[in-house]
Design goal:
Elements: H1 5-18, E1 28-30, H2 39-52, E2 61-64, H3 67-70, H4 77-91, E3 93-94, E4 114-116, E5 121-122, E6 132-138, E7 144-150, E8 167-173, H5 176-192, H6 198-207, E9 214-220, H7 223-234, E10 242-246, H8 251-254, H9 261-272
């Protein structure tokens, strides 16, 4: 079954309109790109028409496919393209389409938004817009996917680890042994992150991780202090601002967080006064 130009265009425009994306801000296309005589021209035709509904800009968006590196991975083809784009965003580099020599005679990129990128080069942007890329994936079963990915840009100045503001770092595990191992892994990671944003790390650990029975809480104001406390903990020693416990043993203290209005007012007062040790 031949791929459909109209269905690809419809999906792409729906994605751009629904999420308020101007394709002029997309500077990398990770195409399905199977190398077939019919499928590839249809894919490029659909992309060109979708982009032309928003911009007349030419030769600004790199076009490639990871299949030139890996071949067709069948059910893993789409996710391999996503991984490629994520790595490109991380390193801020546009990866080349390797083994490219002659363009399919049915494909025309001259005068289009696209060009074939044949060499590794820095991924530069000319405005405050984040780097953006789109990934397409199709299949015989009727799969028609178009995903836009963009890099994260901090909306506020990053507060680095040398900021004297205290933060609460929390770790948890199912057993005391796993908590020790988790702390060791965290210490190794922090040692590699020389420009660590403690505020962001504290937020992620508090909101993005499942809380398990064995817990560690660390009140810290610097990366160095955090490393010292984790090192001591992994060696079975105590450290200033470091607290450990188990949920079942400390259930009566946890009940305070589900208390009445007076309890909630007390907790809010502690937070305003930055008495983080009260929560540890």
């Amino acid at each position: 079954m031949a791929p459909s130009v109209s269905s690809q265009i419809t999906l792409q425009k729906q994605v751009y309109e629904r999420f308020g994306i101007n394709p002029e801000t997309i500077s990398l296309i990770e195409a399905h790109g199977t190398g077939t005589a019919l499928g590839d021209p249809i894919e490029v035709e659909a992309l060109t028409e979708s982009f032309r509904a928003y911009t007349t800009k030419q030769d600004y968006c790199a076009l490639g496919s990871v299949k030139s590196n890996l071949g067709h991975l069948l059910t893993a083809a789409g996710v391999s393209g996503v991984i490629k784009v994520l790595l490109a965003l991380r390193h801020r580099m546009l990866p080349p389409t390797i083994n490219f020599s002659t363009l399919n005679e049915r494909i025309t990129v001259e005068g289009s938004p696209f060009y074939i990128n044949t060499g590794l080069k820095p991924w530069t942007v000319t405005s405050e817009q984040p780097r953006r890329a789109a990934v397409s994936s199709f299949g015989f079963s009727g799969t028609n996917a178009h995903l836009v990915l963009e890099e994260y840009l901090s909306l506020a100045p990053v507060r680095r680890a040398d900021n004297p503001q205290q933060v609460l770092i929390v770790l948890s595990a199912k057993t005391a042994e796993r908590l020790q191992a988790y702390a060791a892994k965290m210490k190794a990671w922090v040692e590699e992150e020389t420009e660590l944003d403690l505020v962001a790390l504290a937020y992620t650990l508090q909101t993005g991780r499942e809380a398990m029975m064995h817990r560690l809480a660390l009140v810290t104001e610097s990366r160095v202090q955090m490393l010292d406390a984790l090192d001591r903990f992994t060696r079975g020693q105590s450290a200033p601002g470091l607290f450990t416990g188990q949920v079942k043993k400390n259930a009566e203290h946890a009940a305070l967080f589900e208390g009445d209005e007076d309890d909630q007012a007390l907790l809010q007062a502690w937070m305003r006064a930055k008495k983080l040790r009260r929560f540890a």
